Amino acid sequence: MTDSTLPSASSAVQPLSTFQDMQLPSMLNAAITRLGYTVPTEIQLLSLPPARKGQDVLGTAATGSGKTVAFLLPLIEKLLSSRATPRRTRALVLAPTRELAAQIEEVALELCKSTPLRVTSIFGGVGQSPQAAALRAGTEIVIATPGRLLDHIGQGNAQFGGLEVLVLDEADRMLDLGFLPDIRRILKVLPSQRQTLLFSATMPDDILKLARDFQHNPVRVGVKHGGKPASRITELAYAVSSEMKVDLVAGLLAAPDVDQALVFTRTKHRANRVAEKLEKAGISAQRIHGNRSQTARTEALEGFKSGKYRVLVATDIAARGIDVPALGHVINFDVPVSAEDYVHRAGRTARAGLSGTAITLFSRDEEDGLRSIERFTGKPIERATLAGFDYSAKPSEGLEIPLRDRLAAHRAQRNGGQGGGQRGGGQGGSQGHARPASAQQGQGRSGQGSAGQRQQSSGQARPADNARFSTVAPAPGEGRSGGNRGGGPRRGGSGGGRR
């Protein structure tokens, strides 16, 4: 399926003035005024007219361009403007990560503050009981990650007979994470007569196929294919050995114009180690990834937003939903596995019309990946060096702790300081641990079956944020947020591994 088979809205932005000129319901207009929204962004100008008419919309725009408001405004307007049986779920928003779901919920609560509409978020990492109670009591707007929502559907907590609007946000990421089967299962319990709004930062062919399968004559708005960072983002790349990357990050953070930075790593273990090393260097840092409890992730994110931490180290999947409007710098500690991930990472800065800088550190074996990104975005990334930095120096210790040592530490912690179990991934006491980052790109999905049996899927599988079980060991002192430590899969229970 190509763009030519989809209806398109005009790409020219009409000079529609302000939100107040849209004649929104009074309660929604009051919320817009209170939040200080004035002139709509480009994606809002393009998507709001067809969405407000009840048409399906396939919207594409860069991260940070206002997609959340673009789908929440017509959704809330529709619910306020039509009569329906109260205390029923009338709108469902699906998002790939907990953080993104929480971010959408925050905006929805603000927009619904003066309305009778109720909003509930459903995601893993927290207990299911409050979520089940909210669903059973009735809530008009549900914002959920697919895995945890399927848990509630299976338990009979969620009923969608009165659903009017479905939204798929970050659709490209949900497909990347292998959510398509889950989405299809959810769609089976939804009414076929509904409005479907699908938004994405990039538009690969798989998304266009998704639109054909899930939407009815969608109006296509935004850019047509691929994507590139916003023009307000300065892109720089620093050539440096893997062993010296942490030192270079510390050097970059010493610059007077760098206040805070969001640092992306390839794996959870690397996120832990980078944060630890920056702390040792006197730089306040925290990390956010799928093996941390939801409480720890929330504290890290809030601490970063408030300025308590100068650096937040994150994996790609956990970083979805990090929205810091004035964030000036994003640092790719590792070159992203895909060019689309680069666009998403860079889009964490230069939000809300501000400028920002996206920095990528690349070692010799990452040069091909960097060139692939340049081909995708259609422009070269300026090469830079940090004045006074000794690129030839050798660090006192490596970044990653060998897998054998990590497994031994986890066994000792679990067994009260005594070792035991067989060596090797997936045997005995090391159940659930993954291969080290040097042995895999991305995150592997654990296999299902008896304890100790784990299969690594080829390629980049669904990370632990959205998988039933984590395949990467938590950092010392951090347990998983619930889940089944036995062998077979288990649905239900608080904090079960599905996110």
UniProtKB/TrEMBL annotation:
<protein>
    <submittedName>
        <fullName>RNA helicase</fullName>
    </submittedName>
</protein>
<feature type="compositionally biased region" description="Gly residues">
    <location>
        <begin position="416"/>
        <end position="431"/>
    </location>
</feature>
<dbReference type="InterPro" id="IPR014001">
    <property type="entry name" value="Helicase_ATP-bd"/>
</dbReference>
<dbReference type="GO" id="GO:0005829">
    <property type="term" value="C:cytosol"/>
</dbReference>
<dbReference type="InterPro" id="IPR000629">
    <property type="entry name" value="RNA-helicase_DEAD-box_CS"/>
</dbReference>
<dbReference type="InterPro" id="IPR050079">
    <property type="entry name" value="DEAD_box_RNA_helicase"/>
</dbReference>
<comment type="similarity">
    <text>Belongs to the DEAD box helicase family.</text>
</comment>
<dbReference type="GO" id="GO:0003724">
    <property type="term" value="F:RNA helicase activity"/>
</dbReference>
<feature type="domain" description="Helicase ATP-binding">
    <location>
        <begin position="48"/>
        <end position="221"/>
    </location>
</feature>
<keyword id="KW-0067">ATP-binding</keyword>
<dbReference type="GO" id="GO:0003676">
    <property type="term" value="F:nucleic acid binding"/>
</dbReference>
<keyword id="KW-0347">Helicase</keyword>
<dbReference type="InterPro" id="IPR044742">
    <property type="entry name" value="DEAD/DEAH_RhlB"/>
</dbReference>
<feature type="compositionally biased region" description="Low complexity">
    <location>
        <begin position="451"/>
        <end position="462"/>
    </location>
</feature>
<dbReference type="InterPro" id="IPR001650">
    <property type="entry name" value="Helicase_C-like"/>
</dbReference>
<dbReference type="InterPro" id="IPR011545">
    <property type="entry name" value="DEAD/DEAH_box_helicase_dom"/>
</dbReference>
<keyword id="KW-0378">Hydrolase</keyword>
<feature type="compositionally biased region" description="Gly residues">
    <location>
        <begin position="479"/>
        <end position="499"/>
    </location>
</feature>
<keyword id="KW-0547">Nucleotide-binding</keyword>
<dbReference type="InterPro" id="IPR027417">
    <property type="entry name" value="P-loop_NTPase"/>
</dbReference>
<feature type="domain" description="Helicase C-terminal">
    <location>
        <begin position="232"/>
        <end position="392"/>
    </location>
</feature>
<feature type="domain" description="DEAD-box RNA helicase Q">
    <location>
        <begin position="17"/>
        <end position="45"/>
    </location>
</feature>
<dbReference type="GO" id="GO:0016787">
    <property type="term" value="F:hydrolase activity"/>
</dbReference>
<dbReference type="Pfam" id="PF00270">
    <property type="entry name" value="DEAD"/>
</dbReference>
<dbReference type="InterPro" id="IPR014014">
    <property type="entry name" value="RNA_helicase_DEAD_Q_motif"/>
</dbReference>
<feature type="short sequence motif" description="Q motif">
    <location>
        <begin position="17"/>
        <end position="45"/>
    </location>
</feature>
<dbReference type="GO" id="GO:0005524">
    <property type="term" value="F:ATP binding"/>
</dbReference>
<dbReference type="Pfam" id="PF00271">
    <property type="entry name" value="Helicase_C"/>
</dbReference>
<feature type="region of interest" description="Disordered">
    <location>
        <begin position="412"/>
        <end position="499"/>
    </location>
</feature>
